[in-house]
Every structure is written in C-alpha cells, then in structure tokens.
Fold this protein.
Amino acid sequence: MSDSMQDAQRALERLSDRQFVLTTAHEGRRCGVLVSGAARAATEPMLVAAFVRRGHWIEPLIRDSRVFALCQVPTQTSAATSLLLRRFAEASRPRDGDPFDGFDAGTLTTGAPILIHSPLAFDCDVHRHIDLDADHEVYCGVVRAVVIDGRRIILEPPPPPGADRRVLSDRRTFQRRKPGKQAHEGK
C-alpha cells in the first residue's frame, strides 16, 4: 500500500468523533450544512457517509452536481469557528450572498468547496444517496482526494466531463414491485 493511501486510511479513522460540514457547489452556487454524523462506509473503494437532516437546500445542489466535500470543523474554539458553526447550522437558505463569505475556501478535484483551515477534508463524487424515509438522509461518496493536516492527497482523478455516470435515482432503473403487477422494464 502506498504512503498516500496509508495517509488516506488514517484520515478515515478520524471521522467518528469530529464535527463536519458537508459542502457542494453547482452553477456558481455554493452551500454547506453541519452534518449530524460522518462515518467510513467502505475501504475498497474508499467511501465516506454523511448523515444530513432532511429539508436543507443543499439537497438539489448535490443532486445536480453529483459531488460533495466533508470538511472537519477545527477543534480549537475561536470567533471564526463559532461563526462557522452558526452559519452552517442554519437549515434555511441564506437571503443574500455566498454562505462561504468570510471563510477561505478552495477546491481539490471535484469542485466542491473545501474549507482551507479544515484539518481534515474528503473530496467526493456521490456514490449513493439514501432517503431513509425519516428525518435524516445519507450521502455516500467515493473519496477522490483528502486533506489531512494541510497535506493534499489526490487518490483518483474524477471521471472526464461527459463520461457515462450511473444515475442512481432514475426511477426506470429501480422499481418496487407492487403485488400483482409486473416490474417496469426501463427502456
């Protein structure tokens, strides 16, 4: 296993007991939300999962962009950390401006915003979106890049633009069978 892959594995181990902000961007709009939890979903391929309260305006942006980043909230308390927690804890859409105003943010491979001062960040392509029919939903992502203690690790390049991406929410690809009816053949 390469050194960068070992570093990425160590980053996964730091997921469970930290606070994270889930971020995304699409067509010039950026968004972020404080997640209820984050976890390692798999190691091969490297997958992370984020648990988000339903009803946040980040949902359509992730759906359309098919990317997200998980950025750890810095552990030291400061005015900037307090502002970060307040800004991204809000479920309603900001009335004006960019929610990242006042924060240093950049991108890695997918284009999702990465908070520069975050000690740990995962840049991901959406692998699955799971609607739990509850007050939370789950976003599971394939990790394309990691930032750990300021060091950037690119794991796998994203697919080229226009590449065939599997559509996971297309109703033609999965239909629940109703008793006495034939399953729809997606043509």
Remarks:
- The radius of gyration is 17 Å.
- The CA atoms of residues 8 and 146 lie 7 Å apart.
- Residues 3-154 form a domain with the Pnp Oxidase; Chain A fold (CATH 2.30.110.10).
